[in-house]
């Protein structure tokens, strides 16, 4: 294990946290619907339930961080992707707490702030963990070694470019730019250009990520255990 420990920190609390998130996930659905004219009591209930789900989520994040605590952090590519996942997932969670407030959400609903929020959780949080898993399992399943230096450089490139894509969208949303519009005012031009450049860079570096796996298959560098 990269952490050098037998199991994750506070395993029992992690189990309860995941069960809690699974149960609470069934009763927070209307936080997507604050703008449809819900009465104030219903808004308050779903706002509270959405904020409460942040508690077991923060327990999970704390456990991940404490699992890495107390060890000499290696700069292996899998470790970098894992830490990148924690950073991205936490960032997405923080903007989720902002949007859980119904008064704020009514103003930010259907803007690019929401797009930035769920992409930090999904496109950056979940995808980073999937990439980390691929790097972990590929050598075990194929007995082939990935180029670690290329992987580390690729991580830094993707980390920078994907933040360049989605972080400016917070500013676009706060400025009032709505989602799903192909035309927009020149007032939004700067952040849109930065986001578009980041998107193209991310696409390119993702292709490089796939190529690194192809290169490992072609070069036949065997693992030595």
From TrEMBL:
SUPFAM superfamilies: Cytochrome c oxidase subunit I-like
Highest rank taxon of the organism: Eukaryota
Gene3D superfamilies reported in the protein's UniProt record: Cytochrome c oxidase-like, subunit I domain
Pfam families named among the record's database cross-references: COX1
Principal place of residence: mitochondrion
Localization annotation: Mitochondrion inner membrane
Cross-referenced InterPro entries: Cyt_c_oxase-like_su1_dom (IPR023616), Cyt_c_oxase-like_su1_sf (IPR036927), Cyt_C_Oxase_1 (IPR000883)
Transmembrane segments: 12-32, 44-68, 80-100, 120-141, 153-171, 191-214
Pathway(s) served: Energy metabolism; oxidative phosphorylation
Membrane topology: Multi-pass membrane protein
All residue ranges annotated as the Cytochrome oxidase subunit I profile domain in the record: 1-225
Cofactor requirements of the protein: heme
This protein's GO CC annotations: mitochondrial inner membrane
An example Gene Ontology biological process: electron transport coupled proton transport
Keywords: Electron transport, Membrane, Metal-binding, Mitochondrion, Mitochondrion inner membrane, Respiratory chain, Translocase, Transmembrane, Transmembrane helix, Transport
PROSITE patterns named in the record: COX1 (PS50855)
Gene Ontology MF terms: cytochrome-c oxidase activity; heme binding; metal ion binding
Record field: catalytic activity: 4 Fe(II)-[cytochrome c] + O2 + 8 H(+)(in) = 4 Fe(III)-[cytochrome c] + 2 H2O + 4 H(+)(out)
Subunit relationships: Component of the cytochrome c oxidase (complex IV, CIV), a multisubunit enzyme composed of a catalytic core of 3 subunits and several supernumerary subunits. The complex exists as a monomer or a dimer and forms supercomplexes (SCs) in the inner mitochondrial membrane with ubiquinol-cytochrome c oxidoreductase (cytochrome b-c1 complex, complex III, CIII).
Family affiliation: Belongs to the heme-copper respiratory oxidase family.
Protein name per its UniProtKB record: Cytochrome c oxidase subunit 1
Species annotation: Phenacoccus fraxinus
Lineage: Eukaryota, Metazoa, Ecdysozoa, Arthropoda, Hexapoda
Gene: COI
């Amino acid at each position: 294990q990269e952490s050098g420990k037998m199991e994750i920190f506070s395993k029992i609390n992690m189990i309860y946290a995941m069960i809690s998130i699974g149960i609470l996930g069934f009763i927070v659905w209307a936080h997507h619907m604050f703008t449809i004219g819900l009465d104030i009591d219903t808004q308050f209930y779903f706002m509270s339930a959405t904020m409460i789900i942040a508690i077991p989520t923060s327990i999970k994040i704390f456990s991940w961080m404490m699992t890495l605590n107390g060890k000499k952090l290696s700069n292996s590519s899998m470790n970098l992707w894992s830490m990148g996942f924690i950073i991205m997932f936490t960032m997405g969670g923080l903007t989720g707490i902002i949007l859980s407030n119904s008064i704020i959400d009514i103003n930010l609903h259907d803007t690019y702030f929401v797009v930035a929020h769920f992409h930090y959780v999904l496109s950056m949080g979940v995808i980073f963990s999937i990439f980390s898993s691929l790097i972990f399992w590929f050598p075990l399943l194929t007995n082939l070694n990935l180029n670690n230096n290329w992987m580390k450089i690729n991580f830094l490139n993707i980390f920078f470019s994907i933040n360049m894509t989605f972080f400016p969208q917070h500013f676009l949303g706060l400025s009032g730019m709505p989602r799903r519009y192909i035309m927009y005012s020149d007032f939004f031009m700067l952040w849109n250009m930065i986001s578009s450049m980041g998107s193209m860079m991310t696409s390119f570096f993702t292709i490089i990520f796939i190529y690194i796996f192809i290169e490992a298959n072609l070069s036949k560098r065997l693992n030595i255990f």
